[in-house]
Amino acid sequence: MIDSHCHLGSHKFSPEEIPQIIANAKDHGISRMITLATSEDDILTNLQLARTYPEVHACLGIHPCDVHETRDDFESLLSPHLDDPKVAGLGETGLDYFHPAPKGWTDENYHARQRDFLRRHFQLAGKHGLNVVIHTRDKTGSASFDDALEIYREFHESIRAVFHCFPGPFEQAEKVILLGGLISFTGIVTFKNAQQVMETAQACLSGSFLVETDSPYLAPVPHRGKRCEPAFTKFTGARIAELRNQTIEEVSRETDDACCCFFRVT
């Protein structure tokens, strides 16, 4: 099984731990990991991890919560690396309407900058033949999802997107899938109170979703509340298999095929 979304460059993982974390993942049947950059500070860290470990590929992007601290011409940070064979996509980018605007910003101009950055990630992805990993999060309602979907709609004929850590109902997932995109499930699907996500996992067609950890966050049951790591992908995969009345081998094969196609890795 592939962990389609983790953050091996996170400060929650010390550099000294990384070899063991990757070894743990391999011991638990996790064959590959996609590590994602989120800011200016961790682009080179994630890229170096991908270059060092054969099992790791990287996506490079600016997280919506970092747009206020990122230079206007963020493309100059990413472009020099996007033809590297270990770069598998653009992201993590997207829209975050959950966290308040930082000091000196209004919600209106903060969210407008996020939308501008997301659109430009798509434009950059198109130039380099890559796909895009999207984060959305709202306090209430679905405004960030709706806005991100409309931006994706502008580019969907030539670029695919995965809406990672998908929390919503199947009606939302279907809108992404009909545009040619994917959704991705984290350990949330193992939580007792996550009925909506469980129902979405049951309803999605095979090949339309991925499995991820989003580590070091959102550890699945039985490790909920602990620091997450790629080895835990198997628990999320096993829960999805149970919900869908499939074997873990079937879910692994289907999600691996979808992941390899999306990120263009072999």
How far apart lie the N and C ends? 13 Å
The main sheet orders its strands as: 1-2-3-4-5-6-7-8
Please give the CATH architecture: Alpha-Beta Barrel
Q: Order of helices and strands, N to C?
A: EHEHEHEHEHEHEHEHH
Largest sheet: 8 strands, parallel
Can you tell me the CATH superfamily? Metal-dependent hydrolases
Class per helix and strand makeup: alpha/beta
* Proportion in helices: 25-40%
Q: Tell me the total number of β-strands.
A: 8
Average pLDDT figure: 98
What number of structural domains do the residues give?
1
What does this entry look like structurally?
This protein is an alpha/beta fold. It contains 9 helices and 8 strands. It has helices at 18-27, 43-52, 75-78, 107-128, 143-155, 170-178, 195-203, 233-243, 248-263, and strands at 2-6, 32-36, 56-60, 87-96, 132-137, 161-163, 182-185, 209-211. It starts with a strand and ends with a helix. The mean pLDDT is 98.
